[in-house]
Structure formats: structure tokens, C-alpha cells
Amino acid sequence: MPFSHVYGFVSFGLLFYFYFLLLSHFLNKKILIVIYSVFLLYWGLNSLFIQNIYQFPALPNSLGDILIIFLSVVYFYKIMLEAKIMKLADEPLIWINTALLIYFTGNLFFYILFNVILEASRAFSKITVQYYSGLMALFYILIAIGFFKAKKSNDVN
Question: How far apart are CA 26 and CA 17, in angstroms?
């Protein structure tokens, strides 16, 4: 579990940076930087003082999921307000953002209940892991479609 704390810190930091690049002209940069800094500070403090590093970091993961869901919805809001994209299905970032929104929404419930699930029955744990595996498969399929669309649009240009 100590690796989960480090992995989450880095992965949420990178995802937040991704959304910072997408939304920095739409949202106030200073507010985004403050949210980013407070979140990473909280993650570090949680790992050091609040949650044992040998326990799954459910608290910061859940908060991170909520932040990514929020940023994903804001990105869709931005796209709809600007109305510059004629065919959303051809836009790679739409696919990638959809993947992130679905994955982190499903993950939110998984992270919130992870430590409780570990104490429940093995059968329930197996079902939960199967759900999580399906969610991961859907996530990677949507990301792959986004990359395929990006390659296709670069080939045309």
C-alpha cells in the first residue's frame, strides 16, 4: 500500500496538470493552482499523519476523484459554451475526457468502500474486483479511441 500513496500523489498531480492546460483559459489560473497545491498538500499530510501508509489511501483518492470529475464536467461545459466542435465524436479529447469522467465516477465508489470491502466476504470482494476490471477495460477502450482519433486527425493534417 505505500506504493498506492506515491502513485496516487503523482497520477492525480499529472491529471490535474492535464486539466490545468485544458482549462487555464477558461477558469482562473490562480484558483486552479491553489486547488492543485492544497490537494497535493492534503495528500502528503494524509499519507504522513492521517491514514496509515499500509492502508489504502481511500480519503485522498476519493477527494481526487471528485476533483477530476468536477474538472471533466467543467471541460464539457467549456466545449458546449464555445460550440467550436462540429462533430464531437471526431474530437480526441472528448473521448479521453469521457473515459476519465466514467472511470473516476465509478472509481469514487470503489475508493470510498475499498477498506470496507477488504473486510467483507471474499465473494463480495471478487465481484468488486470484476467490476473494477470492467471499468478499467472501458477506460482503456475509450482512451484508445481517443488516441486513434488523434492519429487520424494528424494524418489528415
Answer: 14
